[in-house]
Amino acid sequence: MAGISDSPSRKIAREFDADIVVSELISAEGLVRDCTRTWDLAKFDNSERPIGLQIFGARPAAMAEAAAKLASLNPDFIDINFGCPAPKIVGKNGGSSILKDLPLLKTIVNDVVKSVSLPVTVKMRAGWDMSELTYIEAGKIVEDCGAAAIALHPRTKSQGFSGKSEWKMIGELKQAVKIPVIGNGDINTPEDAARMFEETGCDAVMIGRAAMGNPWIFSRTKQYLLTGKISPEPSPADKINMALRLYDSMIEYYGLPSAIYKMRSHLCYYLRGLPGSTEIKPVMMRLLSVDEIKDSLLKYRDSLDTDIDIRISA
Q1: Which residues of 33-53 are buried (b: 16+ CB within 10 A; e: fewer)?
Q2: Which of 253-267, 274-288, 300-314 shows the lowest per-residue confidence on average (mean pLDDT)?
Q3: pLDDT confidence of residue 94
Q4: For a Cys staple, 184 with which of 161, 165, 203, 206, CB 3.0–4.6 Å?
Q5: In what order do the strands lie in the sheet with 77-82?
Q6: Do residues 50 and 44 make contact, with C-beta atoms less than 8 angstroms apart?
Q7: Cα(288)–Cα(258) distance, rounded to whole angstroms?
Q8: How far lies 229's CA from each of 132, 194, 224, 226, in Å?
Q9: Could you give the CA distance from residue 129 to residue 97 in angstroms, rounded to a whole number?
Q10: pLDDT at res. 306
């Protein structure tokens, strides 16, 4: 997830029992042009393994070259994104826009698979819109081209993240192909993950938005799948303490002031739903001093623990 699944966050996800992590979206064109900022998105260390590096683009030659370059970093697999509905990705004919052109999709997957010795996986949506549901045909193409697995988010590009994901499509794809199928979409609780396995027969589940500010979702889901027991939700103090820890990791990884700006979206997710967070978040977004940010978070945490109304100002 762009701006979310960076290296510091992936390390935490692995610590909380995520079996596999995937990089942010990496532009194939940026890699081909050796853009430093694009290459920065591909950085990882061994504590994140197994990890896939995820590329997007619309030119087969660029996608193949980009995959080969990323393979030199020795990730565990290369992931092709045909699922992102974001306008800035679709506007470049990347992400889910490829689902409108299955011959192009076939060429891209075929060329990427041939360019690397690593496993290649594909993430895709159900289609461009409800009148163009291409997930079965696309899935068979992906399999025929030699991909190792398919992840399906059963919404269309036009739906974005609205409405409900149609899990039955995951089950239909599972019946149509022999390679592993990974289910994605609307997994918000451990029970959701178990229900997706049961209803679709998928081989694995992928958790995205529910993990934003909530790495506990991985360990809680793993425990439920293995034992049938649900562990408690993290407390407000747990969430704030984790946000503080992530801040330190961001500072070490990105340096200042970049870490402050990059952490803002993460902080919004960690504070989401906490008492008084609606008033506190806008204030936190204006702070530019690490010491002020940490002090404010600690005061807020303590106020939740003691039920004292502490107002933070900036």
Answers
A1: eeeeebeebbebeeebeebbb
A2: 300-314
A3: 84
A4: 206
A5: 21-27, 51-56, 77-82, 120-127, 149-156, 181-184, 204-206
A6: no
A7: 10
A8: 41, 12, 5, 8
A9: 10
A10: 59
Tell me the pTM: 0.91
| Amino acid identity for residue 290 in this structure | V
Among 39, 34, 30, CA closest to 57: 30
Residue 40 CA to residue 107 CA, distance in Å, equals: 27
Residue 117 contacts by C-beta under 8 Å, 6 or more apart in sequence?
A: 71
Amino acid in the structure at residue 32: V
DSSP, res 221? H
Separation of alpha carbons 21 and 6, rounded Å: 10
> What domains are defined for the chain?
7-227 (3.20.20.70), 236-306 (1.10.1200)
Active site positions, annotated = 84
Beta strand 21-27 pairing with 181-184: unpaired
User: Is the four-CA dihedral 261, 266, 269, 270 of positive or negative sign?
Assistant: negative
What is d(CA 114, CA 119) in angstroms, rounded to the nearest whole number?
10
